[in-house]
Write a structure and sequence with these properties.
globular; 203 residues; 9 helices; Rossmann fold; two-stranded antiparallel sheet; alpha/beta; five-stranded parallel sheet; single chain
Amino acid sequence: MLILGLTGAIASGKSTTASLFAARGVPVFSADEAVHRLYDGPAVAPIEAAFPGTTRDGTVDRKALSHALKTAAAGEDQEALARLEAIVHPMVREAEAGFIARQKLLGRRLVVLEIPLLFETGADRRVDMILVTVADEEIRRSRALARPFMDTAKLALLDARRLPEDEQRRRAHFVIDTGSGLEAAATAVDGLLRALLPVANAG
């Protein structure tokens, strides 16, 4: 089974690109979606212990957690985000492993792992090929700031933890620029699938 890792900077079009693969029948694992599920279940207790007051009614209050992280970063606690990731990342890794095992049992030849911190967490060592999505800085910024719970301070905090785009490009096997619109991205995905499926089927 060929495992394609999908990553890129914040708001570079990762989820849109992942949805294009899914629409074409390729199984996709989204690390972000896995986190959302964890915030409604297994991650609640350890996050509340690490960041008191950030959960409500058995779920993580994302607005409160975002505020706690920004407050910590603005003060002397520069490791708050790392503590959160230490809680969440192993749980996401477990969910990812379960996804891969299920797809192998189903006989899938190609799957996509959408992992925002693919390089930063070492997940690049668990995939066969890497696709990086890119977009102009202004496009990314506009997209990111339109999201719930996002502001310039949080965006800067998250961007600072990412591998620079030029280094991501260097490590990628494929790059898709999503700044030209959905139709262009879809055409790029179709072309990539034409290249990948023979390789996957031969594996």
